[in-house]
Amino acid sequence: MTTDDAAPIARPTPERRWPMATAVLAAIVLQVITPHAGRLKLWWVFPVLEVAALLAVIVRDPGRIDRRTRQARRTTLVLIGLLTVGTLGALVVLALDVVDKSYSNVGATALLGRGAALWVTNVVVFSLWFWDVDRGGAAERAAGSKIPPSFGFPEEAMPDLVPDGWIPRYPDYLFLSFTNATAFSPTDTLPLRIWAKMTMMVESVISLITAILVIARAINVLPG
To answer: What is the pTM of this model?
Structure first.
């Protein structure tokens, strides 16, 4: 068979923005609706900044994600960075409220609710990191960039079971983040790069600490 007779390689279809935007909005809503007792007085600053950054991301690259520009990439990184700082700050405040009773008189219901919201937000934040850094980001993956992958997905080991031109999309990274936060280890998707391994380790640590804090508080409120 000559080169002219070979079947053309299917080019991946750029993914849509709405799955990622929905996840970000869910994380922001959790920050707003969780009990505010024990928080800093300016807790609302991060949700406002995150909404502004999300709007900037959508304006720069609406619809399908196919613009390979530095401005679009930087705006996305700013959004993820804000979510990351907010998550780490919430973890610190939660730890203080649980272990230091003199820090504030926060009720058990507020602490348990914030712990659950923090765990979910942690999953969303790291799914965004995996999604935006792996293979250069969504736009680079859709363009067929030669950047080496950082994760090995099972679909790539079974190409006959997926459509031609398959590439991982945001829901794949969300599932990866959820299973890593739940099992504290890789499940069906394996990290191939050092940054991916270290990032997954950090997510597992945050998830484990959050679970320990919530469980410890739950035990303390149980009747003796």
So the answer is: 0.88
